[in-house]
Amino acid sequence: MFDLWQAKQLDTSMSFRVTALKRHCLVLFLLGMVFVPAWSQNPAPDRPVLFDNRDGIATFFGTSPFVTSSTSNPNYAANSQWLKVELHYSVTTKPDQPPFLPSVTFKVWIEGRDLYDPRGKPGVGIAVALTGSVTYINVPAGRDNYGVFYVHPNTLARYSTSAGYTDFDRTFNVHAEAYVGDQLSDYFDKRKEDDLNWFKPLTVIEGLVYRQNQCAFIVDSPDRYPAIKLEDKDSSSSSSAPSLSPPPAPAPTPAPTQ
User: Fold this and answer.
1) Which domain, by its residues, includes 10?
2) Binned average pLDDT, 10 residues per bin, the chain of 258 residues
């Protein structure tokens, strides 16, 4: 009888320890689920630029900073919203290097719809991608860095469906890629797609996506974004301007005949 009671006590003690061990393992598992994603968002030295996992791309609408309440354009009220595409990314540098990346290039593909292309069906059109790029210089290391692109209101109206410019926020997708040198560091889609190459078959339309220094939004939060690398034609000095040569001397007048 006494031995049987000791056995029951042993079984109860072992059961308690097993339960406690299971609870301990469960706590470690939950803590791992919390900390591992946070750790995985930290950039690695071989990928110095990483888009934020939550809001790597955000889209907004807004009017130009120079717009006033009076205008002579009768279509102004219905066609004044610019599209703002903001990129959120982190930057890391190697310990033996300065805490700045010399340059980072971003490329974007903004989905749209061309209802007037003859290759498409009436009222359906074809899928297009408005593309643009920007190169930032001296980008500081840190978790919260930003980049930005803008699209003109007329472009939004031209490449949206019958629903209007709100397609660019509610329906259309945006793809962005970050390059350091010639190497792809990271990419991000505003809306997750089953096909990672969803943007590649779209008909590309260039020259309609503006950098901040190409439109009135150059005065919009200038300290929020890194400096933009000037194009060669913009950074050329006056010394490279062609020299002016004197005009050619006039031809001599022939002497009168005697």
Assistant:
1) 1-38
2) 46 50 52 43 72 96 74 60 97 95 98 96 95 98 97 96 94 97 96 93 98 93 93 54 51 58
